[in-house]
């Protein structure tokens, strides 16, 4: 799955951008507003609206000299389209769900790297920082099993490999005290998934 824009598996980027704006609000937009918010030209926004309104997915009403466009959420295709344009968030929710169900909970887990930033591609790994709690050994069978099963779930859901960046609580404390450069990357790009939040973890390590 293209991690910069997962929905390109089914539609072009311009249509995705317009649909995402429409899906994110209940109020209508003029075509000019749609183009500006979606980051596409007025002409491209108008083309997408024509295509979608032709299928009944978008409703268009006159508004003076302009037209107001709104996603028709009662359309049978609306829910699948919303699901497509929110695939990245659905991946995050999937990871949170899996991690929350671990029999051996992590002290902390967060998404980082290109997938967290939204600038990856089809070959991007799903990088996840996971911190083992005190007393948990890296070769404990229950711990290894849940790492493997979660990675397999993510791969089936996306086609991308999940790469664990696994540390113990002591190791992350040493990395914080040594001011390792990757700490700044985690702070800048990290998306919280489970356990203690990263700022609290870093504060306790100082």
From TrEMBL:
Domain of life: Bacteria
Domain Polymerase nucleotidyl transferase, residue spans: 103-135
InterPro entries membership: NT_sf, Polymerase_NTP_transf_dom, WH-like_DNA-bd_sf, WH_DNA-bd_sf
One Gene Ontology MF term: nucleotidyltransferase activity
SUPFAM superfamilies on file: Nucleotidyltransferase, Winged helix' DNA-binding domain
Protein name as annotated: Polymerase nucleotidyl transferase domain-containing protein
Organism encoding this protein: Jiangella anatolica
